Structure formats: structure tokens, C-alpha cells
Amino acid sequence: MVPLSFYLVLSGILFACGVVGFLIKRNIITIFMSIELMLNGVNLSFVAFAARWQQLSGQVFVFFVMVVAAAEAAVGLAIIIALFRTRETLNIDQVNLLKL
Amino acid sequence: MTPNLHLWLIPILPLIGAAINGLFGKRFSRRGVAAVALGFCGAAFAMALWIAAQFSSLAVPHIEVLTSWLNSGPFSVDYSFSLDQLSLVMLLIVTGVGFLIHIYSVGYMWEEGGYYRFFSYLNLFMFFMLTLVLASNYLLMFVGWEGVGLASYLLIGFFFTRDSAAAAGKKAFIVNRIGDFGFLIGLFLMIKHFGSLDFQKVFDAVKPYSPETTGVGFLTAIALLLLLGACGKSAQIPLYVWLPDAMEGPTPVSALIHAATMVTAGVYMISRSHAIFERAPSALMVVAIIGTLTAFFAATIGIAQTDIKKVLAYSTISQLGYMFLACGVAAFSAGIFHLMTHAFFKGLLFLAAGSVIHAIGGEQDMRKMGGLRKKIPWTFWTMTFATIAIAGIPPFAGFFSKDEILWRAYQASWIYWLVGLITAFLTSFYMFRLWFMTFFGEYRGNAETSHGHEEHLADTRAGAPAPHGHGGIHESPAIMLVPLVILAVLSLVGGWVGVPGSLGGGNHFDKFLGPVFRSSTPAINTGHVQAGETAPPERTTEGTEPKSGHSTEIMFTGISVGAAFLGLFLAWLLYVRSPQLPDRIASSMHGLYSTVAHKYWIDELYAWLFVRPLIAISGIVFWRGIDEGVIDAALNGSADGARELSDEVRHMQSGNLRSYAGWIAVGAAAMLAYMVWMGLRTQ
């Protein structure tokens, strides 16, 4: 049996990759994917704990997270398309109208 | 069943007047303001007369409890009023003289700004003063006591745009605070020892105590603290300094508050507390000494003053000293008698002085007066009545009351009598000096003397006050002269109610007040101020005194009348016969003269001893040190700190989305690290 810590370390690595990607990438789709990566890193730790403690609540949480992620993906992609149509770019550094 | 007199209405009536004028008076015409003020004040006077009319059928003291006021455990105070002979006399003086002065003010203040404000304050004063004299416990009395102080402050500073008036108001208020502090501590001691502030209960509780002749106990302490309060309000040494400055107020105010009524509150309070004072002989002696010293001291200052109102102010202080002397030798009814006659003639003196000032267009310096006798005859004659009355020449009012005090003082100690006699001489001298300087000789001022009068007559509609303050020396309008005449009559006949037995009178005044002052005198009669062989002072009315005393008394009467005439003669000699003499005397005794003219440098001494150090301490320690150094510094420091911190933190909020995310990540990482570290530690 794979020990819990392996899962957690993997989850941490996935989450860290997500964070780093979110911070350094300029392309909005990549950033979007990084967010998904973070969510899935968290999901991994949820299911790992659920398996470890033999409790369903962790898995239930994962479903909720997936639902939210799906909804977010739908809304987020719609926003990205709308954004691309108006600004003709996916570089978020150029999408700064609201910045002071 | 005693009838309900609704005593509470008497103080409330002027308060309603004050409220109406204060709140809406700005929109009224002058006539309307005067009608409201006079109406409510007159109603109070009418009610006082009505009560006086049925007084003989009352069971005194007549107490009316309006409502319970304070309830705190076993201690309670009612909002209640009481009426006995003493408060009836005070009630009639306050409402009567007050009403006359209200009438006078209608004319005197006609040309001044803030007409409604003036009458609102004046009515407010009446409210507090009536509360003071009608209260049936010390706490309610204290409310009135503080209230008259407030009204006095407001009225002294009535011309608040003038710096000196504002400063004088402040001075009066602050000096009074010192006295009130003593009064208040006295009340605390009373609560501690008697558990009540009700007059009746306190005096009943005090009854079993015998006079503290051997040592000094709490009764002496209470008496001395009350005395401190009385000294503040009644302008006695050492707290008299505010009264001369209080002359900055309009003249009717000086007449009403700083001569006739408010300043006598201290005498009233001591008389009211006589049960306590009689059991504290050493405190009584202090009262007598303070009174004697003040009387003499203020009279000497009065000699060298040139401002007509300042002379009268020092004269007031001096006469109040007489009243204190009377209280100090346990001759309370004599003190109240003098209080009454003094209210008449000193009120009149101030009003007449106001009329003089008005006549010559606001000049108060007597050196610029003179020869006014023919120009303003009514004022001259009423002033003459008052001057004779205060000088103590029979048969005017002041003679009887002053003589009564001197006689009773002699029974206590010849020193009091001697100083009192010298003071009587000085009083007569400085009053006739004022009289001669103002009304005789050549006119030395620069107001126009000829024209202007006729126009006034044309202006003066029936009953309407004439405008004043411009052109020519002119007599005051009728509305100002009527109170003068009434007070002049009272100054003449006011003393006849108390003609002593030695002069064939019945001394009715003393007998009338008798029940108040004899009800709770000490069981043992040893403790009186050096009463010695001359009979127990306060229990015997003059009328019941053995006949043998009469010849001595008449002799003393003769001496004091002689002193009065001597003062008159000397004043005539110096200010009529050879007017250049006073200057020569002044320059030959330059040091003495300037000391007296500068009021013995007392103001300077107080400034140096108390005021400057206090200002320095306030400035350096409390203001710069504590207020700015601690309180402001704490506030400003925390504000500055917050601003500096935000200045730093502001840079985090750059608007760059990625940096926010970075901060979130860093925060999350920090928290994670912390939790891991904690986890490792507990393992």
C-alpha cells in the first residue's frame, strides 16, 4: 500500500506547480489551467485522506470541488472568448483597464 | 390642616419669564420683552405679598413638599420649600426690590443691545434667588446658590465684547467656586454626621449637642466650611476681590445682584444655619472677626476710589461685613435687619448712581462729575436719602440697623464695637464724599449741559421710556425715577419696624424673627463669644431687656450718630470748603494714599500668590505636560504610527494581479510552514 505521505507530497507538488504557473504565465488560458491544476492537487489530498481514514466526506468534497471547477471552466472560458473578441489578445498584462 | 400655598410657583414664575424671553425674546419688540419680564417678576411679587398677608394664620415653619428628589439608601432629599419668618423677610426683599429694579432696568437698558437677553438673565436670577431663600434643605439651597452665581456671571459679563467685563465675570465665578467648594464639603460633613440635609432634621439632630467650647469638633468644622461658602458669595475677606470687578455689569445688575440680594445670601445662609453656628463658638468668633475686618478694610479702600460704582462696591463689602459681624455675635436678627435696610438704601444708591451715569452719558468717574444737583433733582434727592440712610443718621433706615449691630457687638466685645464705630465714621465720610463730588461744586465733565433736554421731552410718550445716552445732562425718564422714589421712601421708613426699646420703639423686627432664632438655641448657654456679664445675647430681645441697659444704649447711639456727623463734616470740609485739600493730603502721604487707592495691592498680591503660580502650573504641567505631552501625544502618536505603517503597507497594493496572487501564495506558504513546524514540535 502506498503511504499517505506520497500522495500528500504529490498533491503539494501539483499545487505548487499550479501556483507557480499562475504567477509566472501571461497567457490567460495557461493561468486558467494552472488554477485547475491547483484544484486537482487539493482534490488528490482529499481523496487520499478519505481513503486513509475510511471516511466518505473527503470524496464528497471532491465532487463539490469538481462541480465548482466545471462551472468555473464554463464561465471562465466564456469570459476568455468574450475578452478575446474585444481585446484581440490573451495576454493579461494588456488587460488592465481597471487598474489605477 | 395647613393651607397649600403653592410656594413652588414663586420661583417658577420668573423662570417661565426667563424661558419665554430667552427662547423667543429675539422676535419680540422691546416693549414685549419688558412686559414679559415685568409680568412674571411682578406676579412673583404679588404672590409673595399674598403669602405675607396670610402669614399670621400659618403654622411656621410651613413646609411644602413638592416631590421626592433624590433617594439613595437611607439618604433622601425632597424638592420642598419652606416658609418661616426669615424666609418671608428674604422673599419680600428679593421679590420687592427685584421688581423695582426690573422696572428701572426697562428704562436704563432701553438703548442697549441684547435687551431680551438681559431680562432673560434677570428673571433667571430671580428664579435661583427665590429657590435659594425658599428651599427647605441645604441641597436645594445649594442649587439656588450655584444658580445665582451663574446668573451673576452671565450678567457681569453682559457686555461680553468688552474684555474687562468678560474677565470680571470669570473672576467672580472662579472666586465663588472657592467658596462653594467649602460649602459643598460642609454639606458632605452634614450628610456624614446627620444623615440628612433637611433644615428641620439637621437642626433637630444638632439639638442635643452642647456648644464646642473646650475643643474644636465637627460642628466647628461644618460651621467654618459654611462660612467659607458665605465668604465667597458675600464678598468677605479673603474672597471679596470679585465684587469690585463685578461692577463691569450693567448698573441695575450691580444694584440687584451685587448689592441688594445675591451677596446677602451668605448672611442668610449663616442665619439659617444659626443652630450649627451657635454650637461652634470659635467659628462664630471667626465670623465676627472676618466681618469686622472686612467692614473696616473695605471702608478704607472706599475712601480713595474715584469710580462712583467702585465706591459703592466697597461700601457694599463693608456693609456686608457689618452683617457678618452681627451674625458673629449671634445677633442674627440684627444682621437680617441690616440686610433688609441695606437692600433698600444700597439698591437705591446703585440705581441713583446709574441714573447719574445715564444723565451724563456713561461717565463713571466722580472727578468728572459735580454740580449735578440742579440738573437732575429727582436723582439728587433720592440719592440724598440713601446717603443719609447708609451714613446712619436718624431717622433713616440704616441708622436703626447699624446701631442695633453696634450695640450687640459691644455686648460681645468692645473691640468689635470700636472698629465698627470707626467704620461707621468712614462710611459716612466716603458716602458724603461721593455725594459732594457728584452733586456739588462745579461741573467738571464734558457732556453738553444746555440743549437736548427739550427734544427728550418731546420724545417721551406717556409711560414710554425715553431714549438716552446722547446729548446734554438730562433727568432720567419716569420709569427709572419711580423705583428710585419708592426705594427712597423705604430707605426712610424701612428702619422703623425695628426701633429699639431704648428709643421708645418695640423692636418689632427682632420679635418677628425671634421664633426662628430662638427655636434651637443651645441648652447650655456658656459658649457665647465672650458674652461675659452682659446677658445672653440672642435670647433677649431689646424690648425685654432690663431698663438699666437703656441709658448706656442711648449713649452708644449718640456716639455712633456723632461719628456719622463727623464723617459728614469732614467730607464737607475736604470736598466743598477746600477742594484742593484732598490732593494736598494725598500727595503728602503719598505711600499710604497710593496703597489705599490701589486697594492695598490685594489683587496684585493674589495674582502673585495664587493666580500666576496656578497659571504657571496649568500651563507647564497640565497643558504642556499632561494635555499635550500625554493625552495629545498618545492620540497623535497612534495616528502617526497608523499612517506610517499604512505608508509602508500601501506598496503591497500595487494593482498588479500577479503580485496579489504572489502575496496570497506567500501567506499560504507561511501558514503551512507554521503548521508543519507546530506539528513537528508537538511530536
Report on this model:
The complex is a heterodimer of chains A (100) and B (683). By secondary structure, chain A is an all-alpha fold. Chain A contains 3 helices and no strands. The longest helix of chain A has 31 residues, at 57-87. Chain A is elongated. Chain B is 69% helix and 3% strand. Chain B contains 26 helices and 2 strands. Chain B has a two-stranded antiparallel sheet. At the A-B interface, α1 of A face α26 of B.
Short description, anyone?
Chain A contains 3 helices and no strands.
Topology:
The complex is a heterodimer of chains A (100) and B (683).
Chain A (H helix, E strand, L loop, with lengths): L3 H21 L3 H26 L3 H31 L13
Helix pairs in contact in A: 1-2, 2-3
Chain B lengths: L8 H16 L5 H24 L8 E11 L2 E9 L1 H24 L6 H20 L3 H19 L6 H32 L4 H8 L11 H16 L8 H4 L5 H10 L4 H8 L1 H5 L2 H24 L3 H21 L3 H28 L17 H15 L5 H16 L1 H26 L13 H7 L18 H16 L14 H11 L29 H30 L3 H8 L1 H8 L4 H48 L7 H26 L1
Antiparallel strand pairs in B: 1-2
Helix pairs in contact in B: 1-2, 1-4, 2-3, 2-4, 3-4, 3-10, 3-15, 3-20, 4-5, 5-6, 5-10, 6-8, 8-11, 8-13, 10-15, 11-15, 13-14, 13-18, 14-15, 14-17, 14-18, 15-16, 15-17, 15-20, 15-21, 16-18, 16-20, 17-18, 17-22, 18-22, 23-24
Distance between the termini of chain B: 91 Å
The oligomerization state is heterodimer
**In sequence order, what are the helices and strands of chain B, one letter per element?**
HHEEHHHHHHHHHHHHHHHHHHHHHHHH
Q: Specify the number of helices of chain B.
A: 26
Strand coverage percent of chain A:
under 5%
Biggest interface, residues from each chain: A-B, 6 and 7 residues
What is the overall silhouette of chain A? elongated
- Provide the gyration radius of chain B in Å: 30 Å
Structural class of chain A: mainly alpha
* Low-confidence residue ranges of chain B: 450-470, 522-548
Shape of chain B: globular
Mean pLDDT of chain B: 85
Strand elements of chain A, count = 0
